[in-house]
Specification:
Blueprint (H helix, E strand, L loop, with lengths): L2 H15 L26 H7 L11 H16 L2 H16 L2 H15 L3 H16 L2 H13 L2 H26 L1
Helix pairs in contact: 1-5, 1-6, 1-8, 2-3
Length: about 180
């Protein structure tokens, strides 16, 4: 399995299992310049969701306030089924061992640090992977898990070359 597929799978796992990233956005560089939000400026629906933060709201870093406010906006915009799915992902996340959560966070950060083109390639490869029959996906997972580090590097290199070939062919078709 290629590095792209591995990264894609890891990114998908991070997106499926990760804690809501809005809760930790104060760690993101773009969040450093965030302006503080006054509690009174939040809508009543946001107050209801954030009530456990009310007493300490003014002491929260502005970036965390911004992230929490954005998170509540997203939550409020979700349908009931989307909220149920989010609750299930959060439950699954909380059931992961701490070391596994840390690995997922690290992989999410790697994904987040990719260029838009790299992320698009990961999403394309993940889509292709998802479209494979379940038995084939399981076989690829098994082969990857059993591979040595050198074999994994070789798999990733083959995938990179294959992706370059696909990209060149697509460019030729687009001309």
């Amino acid at each position: 399995m290629s590095k792209l597929i591995q990264i894609m799978l890891l990114a998908a796992l991070a997106m499926i299992c990760a804690e809501p990233q809005w809760a930790y956005a104060d760690e993101a560089p773009e969040a450093l310049a965030a302006a503080a939000i006054e509690w009174r400026d939040l809508r009543p629906e946001q107050h209801a969701l954030l009530r456990r933060f009310e007493a300490d709201w003014a002491q929260l870093p502005p970036a965390r306030q911004q992230a929490l406010a954005r998170g509540t906006e997203r939550w409020l915009a979700m349908s009931d089924s989307e909220r149920a799915a989010a609750r299930e992902r959060f439950k699954a996340w909380n059931e992961l061992p701490a070391d596994r959560r840390e690995r997922v966070r690290e992989r999410w950060e790697k994904y987040r640090d990719m260029t838009p083109e790299q992320r698009a390639a990961v999403r394309r490869n993940f889509k292709r992977f998802r479209e494979l029959p379940p038995a084939r996906r399981e076989e690829l997972r098994r082969r990857w898990q059993q591979a040595t580090p050198q074999e994994r590097r070789e798999m990733l290199e083959r995938l990179r070359r294959l992706q370059e070939l696909r990209d060149r062919r697509q460019l030729q078709r687009d001309r």
